[in-house]
């Protein structure tokens, strides 16, 4: 076999392995244009600075106010759609509102929460949704497989953390922030095992974005049952993200 033939075979093998990777998850990667290639990276960097307390609140808000309108344009230009609440999907595959912690949404405690406090934030303006994982191996006790976290809404991924270990002080562990221009909200999915999306990915309700995990300062401790931490922040008229309780929406959602 000559060198040319070998090169062709290698090329074919390379393509097919890429194809297999694409098929691992059911979201569709979107094309990024060079003009906006840094946009989501920029928001992710800003979010890291906020998270780590490396930027003052007023400066951070200014940057949020600059980036969000651009992200909104990018979202609609790249196939993002307005999706009615009635078409949102329950954010854990195979589960429903019975798995939400607390009583009638009592897990939501907004006291003192401020997005710009980052990892040092107060309160728990979120709902925790638990999976059946008694031995805490991040696999379903029933199927023995990972449990998928689904995007509840449409939106654009604006920040992720894909790595975490037990020495980290990050409370959210491996997390995803999604900005949904349609509901004018951020959605935060925390404590994941594997994050399967990247900044600038456009998602729709039901897209697999992660697997449920135990990452995060408190979430990995034995006393914490395996769960997804789900928070919605609604943007006010100055684009300041403020917590809002999504419990009443969650209990109405269809599952997958
Ligand atoms: Zn939580």
CATH top-level class: Mainly Beta
- The helix-strand sequence is HHHEEEEEEEEEH
The rounded Rg comes to 19 Å
Percent of residues in helices comes to 10-25%
- The pLDDT mean sits at 90
User: What would CATH call the architecture?
Assistant: Distorted Sandwich
Q: What name is given to the CATH topology?
A: Glucose Permease (Domain IIA)
Layout of SSEs?
Layout: H1 3-23, H2 37-51, H3 57-77, E1 127-130, E2 148-150, E3 155-160, E4 174-180, E5 185-195, E6 202-203, E7 208-212, E8 227-235, E9 241-244, H4 247-250
Antiparallel strand pairs: 1-8, 2-7, 3-4, 3-6, 4-5, 5-7, 5-8, 8-9
Helix pairs in contact: 2-3
The site of zinc ion has 4 residues, from loops.
Would you write up a description of this structure?
By secondary structure, the protein is of the alpha+beta class. It is built from four helices and nine strands; from the N terminus they run αααβββββββββα. The protein has one domain: Distorted Sandwich (Glucose Permease (Domain IIA)). Helices cover 24% and strands 20% of the residues. Strands 1, 2, 3, 4, 5, 6, 7, 8 and 9 form a nine-stranded antiparallel beta sheet that branches. Helix 2 runs antiparallel to helix 3. The protein is globular. The chain starts with a helix and ends in a 6-residue tail after the last helix. The structure holds zinc ion. The site of zinc ion has 4 residues, from loops.
């Amino acid at each position: 076999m000559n060198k040319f033939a070998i090169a062709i075979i290698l090329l074919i093998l390379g393509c097919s392995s890429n194809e297999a990777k694409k098929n691992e998850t059911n979201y569709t990667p979107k094309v990024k244009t060079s003009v906006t290639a840094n946009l989501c990276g920029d928001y992710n960097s800003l979010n890291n600075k906020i998270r780590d307390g490396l930027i003052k609140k007023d400066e951070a808000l200014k940057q949020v106010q600059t980036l969000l309108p651009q992200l909104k344009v990018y979202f609609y230009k790249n196939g993002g759609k307005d999706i009615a609440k009635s078409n949102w999907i329950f954010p854990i595959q195979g589960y429903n509102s019975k798995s939400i912690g607390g009583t009638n949404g009592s897990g939501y405690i907004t006291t003192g929460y401020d997005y710009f406090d980052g990892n040092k934030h107060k309160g728990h303006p979120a709902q925790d949704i638990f999976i059946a994982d008694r031995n805490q191996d991040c696999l379903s006790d029933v199927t023995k497989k990972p449990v998928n976290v689904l995007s509840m809404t449409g939106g654009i991924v604006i920040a992720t953390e894909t790595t975490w270990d037990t020495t980290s002080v990050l409370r959210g562990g491996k997390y995803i922030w999604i900005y949904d221009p349609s509901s004018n909200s951020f959605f935060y999915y925390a404590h994941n095992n594997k994050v399967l999306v990247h900044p600038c990915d456009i998602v729709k309700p039901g897209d697999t974005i992660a697997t449920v995990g135990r990452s995060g300062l408190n979430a990995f401790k034995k006393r914490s049952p395996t769960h997804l931490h789900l928070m919605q922040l609604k943007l006010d008229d100055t684009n300041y993200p403020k917590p809002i309780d999504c419990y009443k929406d969650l209990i109405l959602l269809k599952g997958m």
